[in-house]
Amino acid sequence: MSDQIYRWGKAIVEAFPSYWWQLYLACFIGGFIFALCLAVWVRNSARLERWGALFRFLLYSATISVLTAIGLEMALHHSFPWQSMCVLYDHLVGFIVDGTLLAALVASSGIIRSSSVSKDSLPGILLDPKIIVAARFWMVVFYALCGLAKFVDRETIDFFHSSGYSAAFFFFIATWELGWGLALVWRRTALFALGALSIDMFGAIYTHYHNYFARGFAGPFGNSVDALRMLGLIAYLAFALTRQTQDGQGTIGVA
Question: In the chain, count of helices (H) and strands (E)?
Fold first, then answer.
């Protein structure tokens, strides 16, 4: 038992000597602290709208980055400097958003008992229908293009083989991501799509840790960070869409 605990701890620690993971962690913490400051400063609708516009800009710019990165990958079939920069930007925005989501949870839960912290300002920004649409289409582009890229480029099929999976399973996952990514467009299928994509992310995390323990692959936590980032966004969208449905708002997407 102690040996297992040691190996799990080592797997987590191994991720952080990398400057990339340090940068991601800094973005997560920075997003968390900045969002808590917003919960103190933002008190009126005009300010909410301004910060909401900034948040929408981040989400839509991340969507463009994903389009550019995966488009270059499918067109060139190899890594390209601009592609790497676009992928990095997408990841950084994702961790900033995850930090903001954690701050919203902390502020609205009343963990910080202070009259200066507004419990409604951050949820007011994050549950704005325009923000939710921006986040949804970011995820539509991310998953649909990731699935499509697997068919076109097949860059990760060797990883599937080395993990003990068949080519058929590789194409099943590609179809799963493409299909459920597109299903996020429609209101009636969005929640089902989020559930299906969360299974995909948990499966990815399981694979990385199984490879670490069974096959000696390095860096399972570092390899799982992207899936963890997306799980935070999936949880946010699932809550936001459920909340909108309960409130009877009909502007959450295509019927």
Answer: 10, 0
Burial grade of 92 (CB within 10 A; 0-12, 13-18, 19 or more) = buried
First vs last C-alpha separation in the chain: 51
Q: Give SS3 for 155.
A: coil
Q: 154: left (phi > 0), else alpha (psi -120 to 50), else beta?
A: left
Contact call for residues 73 and 153 (beta carbons, < 8 A): yes
Residue type, 234: I
Q: By the 8 A CB rule, do 132 and 184 touch? A: no
Phi, psi dihedrals of residue 254, rounded to the nearest 5° = -75, 130
What percent of the chain stands above pLDDT 70? 78
Q: Which amino acid is at 45?
A: S
pLDDT band at residue 118 under the 50/70/90 scheme: low
For residue 165, report the phi and psi dihedrals to the nearest 5 degrees. -100, 155
Tally of residues, the chain: 255
